[in-house]
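WP5 quarterly update. Target: Penicillin-binding protein 2. Source organism: Micromonospora parastrephiae. Length: 568 aa.
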Amino acid sequence: MGTALTLALFAVIGVRLVFLQAVDTPAYAGGGVADRTRTVELPAPRGAIYDRTGAELAHSVEARYVFADPTEIKDVAGTAKALSPLLGIPASKLTELMKPRKLENGNPSRFEYLARGVEIPAAKQVLALELPGIGVHRDERREVPGGDLAANLIGFTSQDMDGLEGLEARYDDLLSGQDGRRVYEAGLGDLAAPIPGGYSKTTPAKPGSSLTLTIDRDPQFKTQQILSAGMAQQRGATAAAVIIDVPTGEVLAQASHPTYDARKPADSDPVAREDAATSFVVDPGSVHKAITYSAALQEGVITPDTTLPIANSIKKGDTWFSDTHPANGRKMSVPGMLAYSSNVGTITIADRLGPDRLIDYQKRFGLGQPTREGLPGEASGRLLPADEWSESSRGSVPIGHSVDATPLQMAAAYAAIANDGTYVQPHLVKETIGPDGKRTPAPPPVTRPVLSPQNAAALRTMLEAVTTVDGATGLTAAVPGYRVAGKTGTGWRLVDGKKQPGEVSSFIGMAPAEKPRYVIAVFVYAPDGGGAAIAGPAFREMMQFTLRHYRVPPSSGGSAPKFVVYPR
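Structure tokens (predicted):
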């Protein structure tokens, strides 16, 4: 009898188990298991940013994140007070984060970030507290080894590893990858303890890709150092310097003043975080004259041997334009006009060229549109359409006024002259590196012919007069042992189209002039004046370092020609 009863009981239990598994499983799964599941975010490792040599400019290191399950916390105020000194977050903010809240589906939230990028020793201290409802998991923290090195280009991320400025923001989707998550069934009372054999599903994180830039950290460091030293005594000043590799259009250095420490962006002035080369809109002044002379050469308006009688002043509309080196009506050569930056000579030549053709060449040289170098928020500048020209515009535009441009746009224009007349889009990204290590070159830069090689070479030779003729405007930019072609400029800073106090002084040059390898542009806005004393010498130091760094031999084709300013 006893045996029969026992067998009957086992049969009933067996039937019930089958019933539970075959019939009631969905109901049970929809109830109890859901209440016991925990979700842990698995942040995707963010890709690094390298310079052209493979040196790390920004990368992620292992850290921890601290999170809370508000349903498990027994003493919110006490927990916040205990965590505050370890996380460096006010207890009031932690209290707010740990408050119970409902998700969109009506269920209580069981996962809230308290802090990201926590250093491992601090995270271990958090774990040692054994606070109910508080957990720690693997995370990443962004590091910028160089501090302010290329900071205006690289930008920075938020604590949640979202790109906020610079290349970190522009390429955020590529760098950030895709986060994963782990969902598992846990027992009561221990947030981090999965039930052996319980429900568990992991979606792995997909790491982000990395960027290799065209920037070279050594010239970048030296360029920033030179710019900073030159600007040390200037108040409220802004400056930019750009180094372009002529054949490729690769930007080797792009420096701004002021700058900031990308490791501590919260401590910086937003103005100091701007990239001056792409956001600093100027009225370029006389560095624009190279574009006017380029157009005139290409259109046959002048030749390298052209001479013109040059008055001391010329009137356009209601405005007089004068020269700082009066010719007193004598004939002046084109190299002489460049050496002494003759406004009258440039305007006289532009009259023969005409507004339409000059505007066409401004566009060919890349003015009036962003270069699309790679940084977000790049300014486009503005060209004055021919139908908006007044009579005085016929004087101001050819000499670089009534023109809005950025330092990078002007540097790229000179790089076209250096590159035998072919414009190459300046760019910052050399390649991307996938999580699997596969390297993908960046799309090729936009190129277009602007001048014939012969006319580009002729203009380069004439621009050497600026650094060699007695009394020329660019003597301080000459580099011993190398032939240098370039141009000085004095313009204005524009904010919302309005002229600001003070001047923008500049020098853009190329070397070796006989076969240019590099173009360097230096722009200095000094509200109190004195920028001209900075731009030329800064160019000389930067170019001298760059040529030596890349082991470019001194000019072997002899010295620059002996220019005659006032032919008889």
